[in-house]
Amino acid sequence: MRVTLSNLALFVCATLAAPAPNATTSTQETRSLDEIYEAAVAEGGVVTLWHGGDEKTQQNALKAAFEKRFPKMTLNVTVDLSKYHDGNIDLQLANDNVYVDSVILQTLHDYPRWKKAGALMNYAPLNFDKVYPQFKDADAAYTGLFIIAWGLSANLNKTSAVPTAYEDFIKPEYKDKLILTYPNDDDAVLYQFDIILEKLGMKWFDALLANNPRWVRGTQTPGTILTNANSTSVATFTGSYSFTDRPGASFALPTDAKFVSWPQTGAILKKAPHPEGAKLLHSFMLSDEYQKGNGRWSVREDVPAVEGHHKILEEPNTDAPAFAKWMADRASVERSRFFYEDRIGSAQGLSPLIDNL
Known about the structure:
The structure is a single chain. The protein has about 350 residues and is an alpha/beta fold. It contains 11 helices and 11 strands. The mean pLDDT is about 95. Keywords: Signal.
């Protein structure tokens, strides 16, 4: 183990210190999906994906859609917190023992350093040319594959209206009825709090704390608990936004401060054991079929917005490219994390992947 950890430390230091390559080459995919499929089946019919998330089942829909479209393929998906996946990818790279094909993570600051280390395959999937330039690497080492965004949500069986502003969450009627993800446990939630405080100030945060929210781990957990009829929790602003309401959950976008959005970004490891399978997966995820049917904003410029909304870069109250810039300043992120931890305490409870919530 000492050798393994030593290798990891050396690798991480090298990725941060290494100069950028002088020249890069990328492969622009010219084959059809069916032609890539044929090559992936010949390779073994398997692709191994590590995907960021906080519930084991979060990518079941992707697995089902991929395997339905390509019935001779098996998509092995492991969901874990991006902040844990990236360290384990570093370990594989440090020990020259890569067994993952594709990584799709929230930790956007990892991709430039992996590229600098020569760990990523420069591959432009089908429709890569249609992805917003702000969401992709110019050399095709990585690209945004879909958009994640936080929104406001409430259970209308327990309250009369969905909050439409962050200011609503400090109203007296929400005392002891809010459920929120620890900002010091998830960088995207941390960023949301930073944005709110920048606009509404510490007075808002103090008032929020006075309302005694319930703090939990994981961004799916608030929504799960909200829908529980036996729960006293009524509303949250630390979960994914949905274009359509669901049983026990209605949604809105805030009007008084920006909401967080970002391109969940993917790359293929250069030494991936199943490169054709990974190419098929990324090309599928940028296809019309997936971009128009996954219930999210698209990373592609040419895909129309969902009715009642704008394309992601035209949404007036969010800045999807800004998240990557914020994530890149790790010193600032750490200062912010410890500020909130000092106020609300360290994250308590089991990992959201095993807490059965």
